[in-house]
Design a protein that fits this description.
Elements (H helix, E strand, L loop, with lengths): L2 H49 L13 H19 L3 H18 L5 H15 L13 H15 L5 H25 L3 H28 L7 H5 L1 H7 L16 H11 L1 H9 L3 H21 L2 H17 L3 H21 L1 H12 L1 H20 L11 H5 L18 H9 L1 H24 L2 H20 L9 H15 L1 H16 L1
Helix pairs in contact: 1-2, 1-4, 3-4, 3-7, 3-21, 4-6, 5-6, 5-19, 6-21, 7-12, 7-20, 10-12, 10-13, 10-20, 11-12, 11-20, 13-14, 13-20, 14-15, 16-18, 18-19, 19-20, 19-21, 20-21
């Protein structure tokens, strides 16, 4: 065979391979776009309805006009996002779907499908400019899947068991992996943090509006139908209205705002421009006020731990001083402008009934672990509420849907082996994130410090409430953890060093 013939055949093979891969990517893009189009369509339809312009665009006959147009617009937007490779925005949309669609509206699995589709698009579209990477210790993830699957079969309700398994057990792999491939270099990390901080600020604005005006934007009947479940999740005995936003629970909303607070703070100390600093500081203030309106003492305590971590990892002394001054300024503003809200927070934190119920919830969970150390009660969203009553201590004076501690919850539902594997899986990317921080330069250290502080805040608060075991919070945590622990950051840093050495 001549060289020209060989080159011609190889060119033909490459052409067909390119066509085949392109077709696969197109199919996967379609699979990703459609559910996201539905999700964005639901949200946009509520915006259109709120603006009362449905009659203007009524061109689809008997079909709901605003919903149809919103679906079309949402699908087009998501298609453009993927085609233009705005993967940081796509990852943020996964979080928005997890919160509003899967948790608030109860669809349960849409965010998982979209995240899995995005991950497959990343894999088939991988190139030197868009490299591929894998999480460490995949065998541990496989072990967790098998152990948890066995316990899920014991759930009395298959749908609730499957929902818990997907959102708490399966999603960590998909969401963590998605974060790893999104964070190709420091610029991608910065862009993702900028987008996710805007999302957090919008949720904070929604919560502030809910608290100050009593108006819940984008409210649905599903929220009213979940009133009984909310009463099980919220142990508040103070009688004070606490803002819960789309989380349907004030403590969960408090964890969200405490976690998200450190993303704009990290961007603030990393940025060298005045206007971006003002923007990030404004986002941090909005998140702080929204955190106050949840009156969540556990979230506030976790935020203090996150602030300590951020100060320690900030990189430079002037960054540490800036972060140290922020809570002091926020505290002074709240004491001067919102003294009654601060007083309510203190009353809630020191309420003896609150403390007794929380302590009783932990004791009940520990009794269950003692009774079923290897198997637990079975994995499912409603399992604890149905099967924990016979182990309830007197201090827990009402039924609860979880023991208000994610680590106790995992052991009580799935057994101690599942808790051990889960902690190991959580520790590995945290260790990788610390390595990325050590190898980064001073500016990027500040950027990563915000993400690490957010993870430590969620991990600490999970000892006081359902953090890592609540669907939307777990999705946010694993995505940020994947971003800051991505091995691609180290590889890109090595390439930059080699380029500088050559020059």
């Amino acid at each position: 065979m001549s060289m020209n013939t060989w080159n011609t055949e190889m060119t033909g093979v490459k052409r067909w391979r390119t066509i085949l891969i392109s077709s696969h990517v197109s199919i996967l893009v379609t699979l990703v776009v459609l559910p996201v189009g539905v999700a964005l369509g639901i949200l946009l339809s509520k915006v259109l309805s709120a603006m009362n312009i449905a009659s203007v665009i009524a061109v689809f006959g008997a079909l709901p006009p605003s919903s149809m147009w919103a679906f079309v617009i949402g699908t087009i937007i998501m298609a453009l996002i993927i085609i233009l490779r705005q993967y940081e925005l796509a990852a943020t949309i996964v979080i928005a779907i997890s919160l509003y669609l899967d948790w608030y509206l109860g669809t349960a699995f849409v965010a998982s499908i979209v995240a899995l589709g995005l991950l497959l698009v990343f894999f088939l579209a991988r190139s030197p400019l868009h490299p591929w990477a894998e999480p460490r210790a995949l065998w541990l993830l496989a072990l967790l899947f098998v152990l948890a699957l066995f316990q899920t079969t014991r759930a009395p309700n298959f749908l609730y068991g499957a929902q818990y398994y997907v959102t708490i057990i399966f999603n960590p792999l998909i969401i963590l992996w998605l974060g790893i491939v999104v964070a190709r270099d420091a610029a991608n990390v910065r862009r993702f943090f900028q987008i996710i901080s805007v999302f957090g600020a919008l949720v904070a604005i929604h919560t502030i509006i809910q608290t100050t005006t009593g108006t819940f934007l984008f409210e649905t009947s599903h929220r009213d139908a979940d009133a009984l479940i909310i009463s099980y999740f919220d142990p508040s005995a103070t009688g004070v209205h606490r803002a819960e936003s789309f989380f349907l629970n004030a403590d969960s909303a408090g964890i969200f705002f405490a976690v998200m607070l450190f993303i704009p703070l990290g961007l603030f100390i990393e940025s060298s421009s005045f206007l971006p600093k003002v923007l990030y500081l404004g986002e941090a203030f909005l998140l702080s006020f929204a955190l106050l309106f949840t009156y969540s003492a556990g979230a506030l305590a976790a935020a203090c731990i996150g602030a300590i971590v951020l100060i320690a990892l900030a990189g430079r002394m002037r960054y540490r001083i800036q972060i140290f001054l922020f809570p002091l300024i926020v505290g002074m503003v709240m004491i001067v402008w919102l003294p009654s809200q601060v007083d309510i927070l203190l009353q809630h934190a020191t309420n003896p009934q609150e403390l007794m119920l929380r302590n009783g919830a932990w004791q009940t969970g520990l009794r269950i672990i003692q009774a079923f150390p290897l198997t637990g009660l079975g994995i499912g969203r409603d399992v604890y509420l149905l099967r924990a009553e016979s182990y309830r201590v007197l201090a827990q004076y009402k039924s609860l849907a979880h023991p208000h501690n994610s680590y106790i919850e995992l052991a009580a539902l799935g057994g101690i082996p599942i808790l051990i594997v889960f902690i190991a899986l959580l520790s590995i990317p945290i260790w990788q994130a610390s390595r990325n921080w050590l190898r980064a330069d001073a500016r990027n250290r500040s950027l990563l410090a915000g993400g690490i502080a957010a993870i430590m805040t969620l991990s600490f608060n999970s000892a006081f409430n359902a953090g890592w075991t609540l669907g939307p919070l777990a999705a946010i945590g694993w995505l940020i953890l994947g971003i800051v622990s991505s091995p691609l950051l180290v590889k890109n840093r090595h390439r930059e060093v080699k380029t500088v050495e050559k020059v």
